[in-house]
Amino acid sequence: MGGLRVVITVALLIVFTVVCCNFETSEAALSKYDYKMISKVNKDGPYSGLLVSKDSELQPFLKSPNFHLNSKISHVVLSGRRFYIGHIGDRKMIVAVTGMGMMNAAITTQMLCGLFKIKHVLHYGLASNADSKMNMGDIVIPQYWAHTGYWNWQKYGYGPDDELAFEEEGYFSRDYGYLKFADYYTNKTGGKDKDYSCDNDLNNVWYQPEEIFHAGETKDSVFWVPTPYTYYETAKKLEVVALEGCTKEGTHCLQKTPKVVTVKKGSSASMYIDNYAYKNFLNSKFHVSSCDMEGAAIALVCHQHYIPFLGFKALHDDYAAPNPVQPPSCSPSTPPTSPPPSNPPTSPDSPPPSNPPTSPPPSSSPSPSPAYPPPYTPPSSPFPSSSSSPSLYPSIFPFSSPSTPDDDVAVIAEEKSCIYGLLIENCVKVTHEFITKYSHMSDDVSVSSF
């Protein structure tokens, strides 16, 4: 009996030690000083939150003449993330960089919404264009956001009529569609006037909804995270904002004057999409206009907190772009045919042939070059060397290719940086417009709007 008491006592001490260690670890993440600063900031709340993914996207906003940092508490650093405290006119704001990708975006948004008094969250940045009706430089404002990087990857040999792994338990579904990799072979051939159907070990990936955990320990699932109706309707008023088509210096211009457009859907995933076929799939399957790496994560966390969210995405490319090289063709596999032996087969007891086969002499003429890959001529810089006139940024522009000379790559990088800066400046302009004219409307948004 005494031994049992000793075992129980030791076990309780271990549990107590683990709990204390965990408590100390959690306290170390946010110190008493941090909570004191948060409390001071919240006394002046609520705030408009603004999140961007990179510091290069934030600096134009911080340096804009309309934004001013708080004279008493200009920023708070929490778990390595800096939250700037400031205002535009009488509109108080908390601004932060999330870092790239869905996880960083979700973590920072949770900190913003969970620690501070926030009435709504805004987000701007760059996105890839998935809509043929949009042009490079356009700023799209989606009504719905989807995380299109959450998949159930189906086993090879199974198809649309086969149940997914853990579908019966309710963890996954086939409600939102799938991508079949075998559909994306190119140059398929299979005989005269007939395509050959290629198969692929990668099979299918099925798109999945996200789980949402609300207060009161209730949860549901959502694939399309909505922007509150009143916010989306108000965002339509931003379509009259005149965006800049050239840099401030006037040295670089977009081919078409950009515009603000409210669209139905945008998608996000922790992947940079520079692939026309996949963008085309996302548009045809889900009717999305943009592909980015953070928007849906921010929208999802805000939705969980019943905090309105509105995102502005500047399209940094055009919908279609040529491939630098052509992919190989997919042909039906046929068993290899062996050439007839040069000498008849012999038995082990047979004498060796008097004239053993010899290799043919090398040909004096070179063998023909393979048809793949085709020769690729690197593009010369589309920008004029003279800085006296503005250069037009092309609607379809291969930023680099496998054979682009180093000098051209440097020029391309410089031009791209200038244009990206222009796009972010336009995002800042739209954000200012919303903050100064429409940010008051969050007072009228109820939970039912979600």
From TrEMBL:
One GO biological process term: nucleoside metabolic process
Keyword Signal belongs to the record: yes
Segments of skewed composition (Pro residues): 324-382
Residue stretches making up the Nucleoside phosphorylase domain: 57-320
Secretion signal, residue range per the UniProt entry: 1-28
GO molecular function (one): catalytic activity
Alphabetical keyword list: Signal
Signal among keywords: yes
Pfam families named among the record's database cross-references: PNP_UDP_1
InterPro entries tied to this protein: Nucleoside_phosphorylase_d, Nucleoside_phosphorylase_sf
Region of interest called Disordered, as start-end residue ranges on this chain: 323-384
Protein name: Nucleoside phosphorylase domain-containing protein
